[in-house]
Amino acid sequence: MDEKIFSMPRIGDNAPEFKAVTTQGEINFPADFSGSWVILFSHPADFTPVCTSEFMTFAKMEDDFAKANCKLVGLSVDGLYSHIAWLRTIKEKIEYRGMKEIEVKFPLIEDITMEVAKKYGMIQPGESATKAVRAVFFIDPKGIIRTIVYYPLNVGRNFDELYRVLTALQTSDKFGIATPADWRPGDDVIVPPAGSCGVAKDRMDGKEEDVKCYDWFFCTKKLGKEKIFDEILQKN
């Protein structure tokens, strides 16, 4: 029988649908998460050190992601009983960087057949034909893929950056702006190009309140951290 071929999903695509068994029961993805942001991420294997450090960090930060209306869903090609045993070991035995007795409460998908991993392009033959790379998919409340990040097997993820990306996406959606390099909540944001010559001139002349222009195509404005937290991170 010919192997089923999947094309890799892209930013702007609907998140590929699937049903799966997880450590928190069966899920129908992404339908079960409608109305929430989701970070769907894969790891190469249970009982491995880099993956353990990542799962402990994700679990520690789960409340922060929840406050931003974001749920976490993990995946590897290991079986359910391996998942359960590994997560129990993490909670009962692993202490790392001040983290201990860490309980992973978000679902971890069993994907022995690698069907889900292949749907999402998580299997990269140049890395391994039998292990998922460290893929991260940001999926919005409408089930649309908004950001994709891939890491190789031997490099752990930067979780501050994952949280920053989520916050930047939500801020851009809420306020109709873009975020510059290294942006964090409280930093100035980039405003859309002026719609008319008059508006552009006002901006360049400093007449538009809180807007600073470096040239006609590059203007920023202040957007306080408090406003972002009030409008996004605490009211979702």
What general form does the structure show? elongated
Structural class: alpha+beta
Main β-sheet description? 5 strands, mixed
Distance between the termini: 47 Å
Uncertain residue segments? none
Count of DSSP H/I helices: 6
In total, how many beta strands? 12
How would you describe this structure to a colleague?
- With 236 residues, the chain is of the alpha+beta class.
- 31% of the residues lie in helices and 23% in strands.
- It has six helices and twelve strands.
- It has a five-stranded mixed sheet with strand order 7-4-3-8-9, with helices on one face. The protein has a three-stranded antiparallel sheet with strand order 10-12-11, with no helix packed on it.
- Strand 5 (95-96) and strand 6 form a beta hairpin.
- Helix 4 crosses helix 6 (225-233).
- The longest helix has 19 residues, at 49-67.
- It is elongated.
- It starts with 17 loop residues before the first strand and ends with a helix.
